[in-house]
Amino acid sequence: MKQFLDYIPLLVFFTVWMMDERVVSLAGIEHTIGGVFSAAEFLIVASVLTYGSIFLMQRRLDKFQWITLGAVVLFCIPTIIFRDIAYLKLKAPIVNWIFATVFLGSRFIGEKPAIEHMMGHAINAPRDVWLKLNTVWIIYFIVMGIINLVVAFTLSEAHWIQFKVFGNMIFTFGFILAQMPTLSKYIDTEDTDPPDTRKDSA
């Protein structure tokens, strides 16, 4: 559910970008809807509303949600002001590299690596497994940063946006699924066998 909520702003961004540009009037104020700059405006609004709702429900945001929200604001505002999508194109690479830095730093700061903080509530794995997974995620974020940078500045706007919205999603969920065989043996499951049944079996 959490992962789905994180993608809501991107889906809003894609929907607005797909719209033909049109001028709408609201309370006597005209504004253009549709296209990449309008989509950047909606991305800021959708991100604030999405993460604001999560904050109200959970009374907190994790560090990765704060980083994502901050990056949306930081890179969308100059994109809108200067009408230059180069700023927005830098968001995904830099955010991925910030995540890689956080995961790397967690090996030396604190008792648990970042991946254990994220998944440790459901998976009871030994420390060496968490450290290996943490390293794999560091590599993943570095590589995804490079891929996003290359896609953004070598392909067309349409291909960049399609990859930004759907390519990253597919890569991330595929990467997580690839780890399931390793993690499944450590997933905590409650013993649902009733006490009287266990007694009879004994």
- Whole-number average pLDDT? 87
Total separate domains? 2
Uncertain runs with pLDDT below 50, 5 residues or more? 191-202
Strand proportion: under 5%
N- to C-terminal distance? 41 Å
Rg is 21 Å
**Inertia-based shape:** elongated
Question: How would you describe this protein?
Answer:
The chain has helices at residues 2-18, 36-58, 63-82, 86-89, 91-105, 114-119, 127-154, 157-183, 195-201; strands at 22-26, 29-33. The chain is mostly helical and 202 residues long. A two-stranded antiparallel sheet has the order 1-2. A hairpin with a 2-residue loop joins β1 and β2 (29-33). The relative contact order is 0.09. It contains 9 helices and 2 strands. It is 73% helix and 5% strand. The longest helix is centred in the C-terminal third of the chain and has 28 residues, at 127-154. α1 packs antiparallel against α8 (157-183) and α3 (63-82) packs antiparallel against α5 (91-105). The protein is elongated and about 60 Å long. The protein has 2 domains: 1-88, no CATH class; 90-188.
